[in-house]
Batch of 2 targets.
Target 1
Amino acid sequence: MMPPTTTPTHSSFSPLSPLSLSPYKPFTRHPFSTPKLFFSIQFWHHLNTKHTMSIPHCFLSLSFLLLFSCHLLNGLEDTEFGHAIDRKLLGLKRKEKLSHFKFYWHDIVGGRNPTSVAVVPPTLKLNTTTAFGLVNMIDNPLTLGPELSSKLVGKAQGFYASASQSEIDLLMAMNFAFSEGKYNGSTITILGRNCVFNKVREMPVIGGSGLFRFARGYAEARTHWFDYKSGDAIVEYNVYVMHY
């Protein structure tokens, strides 16, 4: 006598049931049917065609598929926001070069036409001799020589702020906006610490625009002249910049 045939129920283990996959109906259209994800699903399908696979192995395979799918979906989202491009599109096919610029920075605080104006005065209640908290906005001339009448090559635009309670120590944030020759319209950006009474102060170049895109380097400042009465100063700058 033949034993009665039994039809598997949902309680019976079937490796194809979780995703409702059938070996005779491969995925042709799927909302996440990218090539890599399709390969992962086919790989999972191939593993599940082995009905002798143990439950732990199937669980690990399913976990792998879910993790890999999440990774792919995150990757797709990132590629819509940003992607790699050819360096040549931004003019980076040229060899990077090092340039040296020397000019004089004129900080004119007094007189009828100041180029450096205090926009935030120091707090008097702090009783400090360093003008801690002072902020000056600047539009200082950059000249080829130390005399103000020397050839103008650009402007230093930005601000400096007194950032120390124990010494004259400035936070410098400014753009050297050039107006001379092929550098006309290009800028070099400085952001750094300036201990005014040090003989040489070094500040980093953090970037630039125009011919100084992707620029990096440093600037050295040396006081050429300072008037204690008016607060006016002339500072020699030597800037070393890596750029394309």
Note: The chain has a mean pLDDT of 81.
Target 2
Amino acid sequence: MPEASSEPTIVTLEPTEAAVLRETVAMDALPEFFDRAYHAVADALERQGVGIAGPPVGVYHGMPSETVDVAAGFPTERAAADSDGVTAVTLPGGRAAQVLHTGSYDGLADAYRRLLRWLGDQGAAPGPVVWESYLTEPLPGGDQDGTKTLITWPLAG
């Protein structure tokens, strides 16, 4: 099955509480970071009795280069207390562009390029933070054709 992305759309979001672990990571170290971060955040939330309220997220601050400023965690039902490097954040509300990518993570760069072109055609500018919601869990060594990733990019201004 070929990789596909839905058509980009503009949505209006409510702010969303989340708990994340944030670090600057080398691009080739992202898989290890995500694995470590999701476990750390899930453990912190369990200790605090804070429920997970949505799929895992990866939050990117600024444009990646050889390294990326990234946070990984989960939306939460209420604000969590900061603990062991895990911090409470609020994913911003307001107008955002979204596109659904289906396929391997290797195809995400094309989905981002398409989204940026579309935003330019709309006369809209992306803000400084973007996040990915991982709607399906990839299986290690498994077929990623059905992996679904929702890209959400709040708009500037």
Note: The mean pLDDT is 92.
